[in-house]
UniProtKB/TrEMBL annotation:
GO terms for molecular function: identical protein binding; potassium channel activity. Belongs to the TMEM38 family. Keywords: Ion channel, Ion transport, Membrane, Potassium, Potassium channel, Potassium transport, Transmembrane, Transmembrane helix, Transport. This is Anaphase-promoting complex subunit 1. It comes from the Eukaryota.
Length: 125
């Protein structure tokens, strides 16, 4: 775009806030859908359900290891499993909350858990 109008518009605080909120809303929806799908397929495999939720929430960060192995650029110091970033940690906690909500152990509705997930992702990021 001429004169970097798109960059300037995206760095304007209200626009940037809306973009970040939409991104975290999408991430929470992906985690919720991943947990629901994995729970439907494997209702007793809780670790599989959590893993699917984490991969859906922080997909590229988790798949970066396999991509580097295929390309032949494996770097052991940058392994996401050994040093997880905030997105991976938050995806794991939110997937656990959605799993507890599916099991009936969380005393709130799905909408309440989803709202708490979006707000926590948005506020802490």
């Amino acid at each position: 775009m001429p004169w970097d109008l798109a960059y300037r518009a995206s760095k304007f605080v209200p626009v940037h806030t809306v973009i970040c909120l939409m991104k975290e809303l999408q991430r929470a929806r992906k985690i919720s859908d991943g947990v629901a799908f994995a729970y439907k397929l494997n209702p007793r495999a809780y670790l599989v359900v959590l893993a699917i939720g984490v991969v859906k929430g922080s997909g590229y960060l988790e798949m970066k290891l396999f991509e580097r192995l295929v390309r032949g650029l494996w770097l052991p110091a940058s392994n996401e499993c050994l040093k997880p970033c905030f997105t991976t940690k938050a995806s794991c906690l939110i997937a656990a909350a959605f799993l507890l909500e599916k099991l009936g152990r969380l005393p709130c509705s799905h909408d309440g858990a989803f709202l708490a997930a979006v707000l926590s992702l948005f506020c802490f990021k």
